[in-house]
Write a structure and sequence with these properties.
By secondary structure, the chain is an alpha/beta fold. The chain folds into two domains: 60 residues, Roll (2,3-Dihydroxybiphenyl 1,2-Dioxygenase, domain 1), CATH 3.10.180; 71 residues, 2,3-Dihydroxybiphenyl 1,2-Dioxygenase, domain 1 (Roll), CATH 3.10.180.10. The chain has four helices and eight strands. The strands form two sheets. Strands 1-4-3-2 form a four-stranded mixed sheet. A hairpin with a 5-residue loop joins strand 7 and strand 8.
């Protein structure tokens, strides 16, 4: 059995300094700041940045070439109120992020959503889901923020 636990997300950085600067401009708390490594405290998991070549070598795989477009995954920031989607996107825009989908009412679920890319193209969704939705309940359990009951 493998524990279903996600504590750390590591992004392989092509330009670690640029990526570190972007997340600092978002106002995220830098927990570890070393030459060639950075870790940010987030609610639910730690986001780490590690040079792509070093990460690939550590995993014993070749580094993938840079590619434009969808990399096969996205990360998500779930907010409590629909207007926070818009506010978050404005803060990302101010920090230099590229907005790939402006805030809008979601088509796939009852809520609001938007997307941005960090300086290296890693995609982030900003979403507000109904508090009584299965997704909101799952997020609450996973992050330890579920309402007792």
């Amino acid at each position: 059995m493998v524990l279903a636990r996600l504590n750390v997300v590591t992004l392989g950085a092509r330009d670690l300094e640029s990526l570190r600067g972007f997340y600092l401009r978002l106002g995220w708390a830098l927990a570890i700041d070393l030459d060639g490594f950075a870790a940010f405290e987030t609610s639910g998991a730690v986001l780490t940045l590690f040079p792509l070549e070093s990460l690939a070598a550590d995993a014993n795989v070749p580094a993938a070439p840079s590619a434009a477009g969808m990399g096969g995954f996205s990360l998500a920031i779930n907010v409590d109120e629909p207007e926070q989607v818009d506010e978050t996107i404005e803060a990302v825009r101010h920090a230099g992020g590229r907005i790939t989908k402006e805030p809008a009412d979601a088509q796939e679920f009852d809520g609001r959503t938007a997307y941005f890319a960090d300086p290296e193209g890693n995609l982030w969704e900003v979403a507000c889901v109904r508090p009584d939705s299965r997704m909101a309940v799952a997020i609450g359990r996973a992050t330890g923020t579920a309402e007792p009951g």
